[in-house]
Structure formats: C-alpha cells, structure tokens
Amino acid sequence: MIIPYKNYKNIIFDLGGVILNIDYSLTVDEFAELGITDFRHLFSQAKQSGLFDLMDKGKVSPADFRAEIKKHLKSPVEDYRIDEAWNAMLLNLPKERLELLKRIKTTHRTFLVSNTNEIHINTFHDYLQKNFGIPDLSGYFEKIYLSYKIGMRKPDAEIFKLVLEENHLLPHETLFIDDSVQHIEGAKKLGIETYLLDTTKESITDIFV
Q1: DSSP of the chain, one letter per residue?
Q2: CATH T-level assignment (fold) for domain 24-87
Q3: What is the distance of C-alpha 103 from the center of its chain?
Q4: For the whole model, what pTM was predicted?
Q5: pLDDT tens, residue by residue, 127-176
Q6: What is the pLDDT of residues 50-73, one digit of tens each?
Q7: Nearest of 19, 1, 38, 33 to residue 101 by alpha carbon
Q8: Gap between the Cα atoms of 118 and 123, Å rounded
Q9: In whole angstroms, how far apart are CA 56 and each of 1, 117, 152?
Q10: pLDDT of 2-36, one tens digit each?
Q11: Nearest-CA neighbor of 149 among 120, 173, 186, 110?
Q12: Which of 80, 82, 107, 200 has its CA 20 to 30 A from that of 33?
C-alpha cells in the first residue's frame, strides 16, 4: 500500500520493525538456550512484563536488568551472554531506508520515537558506526525520542503529547508509522494520523513513493 504522506507536514517513525529489522523470536530462542523457557510469556511485541517496561523507561539499569535475568537462570551465565541474548532480536538496517529517511526529511518535519533501552541502543549505534560510518541517526531526524532517556514509552499518551507539544505539531497534520497495533491505538487517541506497517508484507520503502 502507498500512503498519501504528502498530505501531512510531520512524520513520526518507530525504530524497531520500521527502520531496523527485528525478530523477537530470536531473543526468545537465545534465552531458552540459557535456561529461561518461559521468556516468551515475559516479553513479546504486544505485551511486556514490569521488568522490561522499567528497562524501556530507564528505571532499571543494565546491571540491574542482568541481575534480574540471572534470578531465572538455573546455572551461572556471564553478563555478555545475557546481552547477546537480549540483542539477538536486532537484525539489520537496509541502506535504502536511510536514503529514504534522508529524502523525506527534505520535505517534512521528521521525528523518531522508540521504545528502547541502553543495551539495545548501544549495540545499534555500534552497528551504525561499523556499517555506515555514523554514530547515530540524529542526522536523519529533526529530533529523536528514546524511551529510556525520557522516562516515557509507547503507547502511553504522555510520550505522544510530549512530541506534539514540544515541537508545536498539530495531530491531524502528523502521521505516525509503527508496526505495533497498541502503539498505533495510543497515537490515535490523541488524534494523530497513523499507519500500521505490516512487516510481513511491506517495508517503509514500499509505502513511500
């Protein structure tokens, strides 16, 4: 599907699943190998338990996160193995998506709003540096909102209100693109226009023509 993005002045992008390819099942599998066979019940795209919500809001440090994970393990595991399992969901970022973001920024005000955490974002930034020679995505957006840095996460209304009010955006002039239905519903409640990206059938390079 091609979206009428030219009808909007502002576009808010999600990161994982929209810009960066991810696969939650890989992290589930990695933690299963470490001995946490019920990890799928603790964490999923649609719902997270308290630990992961707090991690996304920056209220749990990486060290505390690892310590909590270790409580579910039957045998000792080094910290780097926990990080590897947690980061397994992070895949790749096709170059054409960066080129698209660069192009869209010349015609729209663009923003990034991501539910993420310190472990994931450090690994992602290392990936960007290694593969594209850039430290982060700041050059592709007017402003970036990372949940663990601002203490808010999608789909809560407060994070959408922050983006709208801080940047003087009108909801009906703003398009939000995400691959999680609960995040889309959260934005809709504030009157923001939305597009739910079906990552099994399309990518952002397919919908912007």
Answers
A1: ----GGG-SEEEE-SBTTTB-B-HHHHHHHHHHHT-TTHHHHB-SS-B-HHHHHHHTT-S-HHHHHHHHHTT-SS---HHHHHHHHHTTB----HHHHHHHHHHHTTSEEEEEE---HHHHHHHHHHHHHHHS-SSSGGGSSEEEEHHHHT--TTSHHHHHHHHHHTT--GGGEEEEES-HHHHHHHHTTT-EEEE--TTT--HHHH--
A2: DNA polymerase; domain 1 (1.10.150)
A3: 21
A4: 0.93
A5: 999 999 999 999 999 999 999 999 999 999 999 999 999 999 999 999 99
A6: 888 899 999 999 999 999 889 888
A7: 19
A8: 9
A9: 31, 5, 8
A10: 888 889 999 999 999 999 999 999 999 999 999 88
A11: 120
A12: 200
Count CB atoms within 10 A of the CB of residue 36.
Answer: 22
Q: Which CATH architecture has domain 5-21+92-207?
A: 3-Layer(aba) Sandwich (3.40)
For residue 91, how many other CB atoms are within 10 A of its CB? 13
Where along the chain do its domains lie?
Answer: 5-21+92-207, 24-87
Count how many residues are written for the chain: 209
Measured CA distances, 138 to 13, 114, 134, 173 (Å): 13, 13, 9, 22
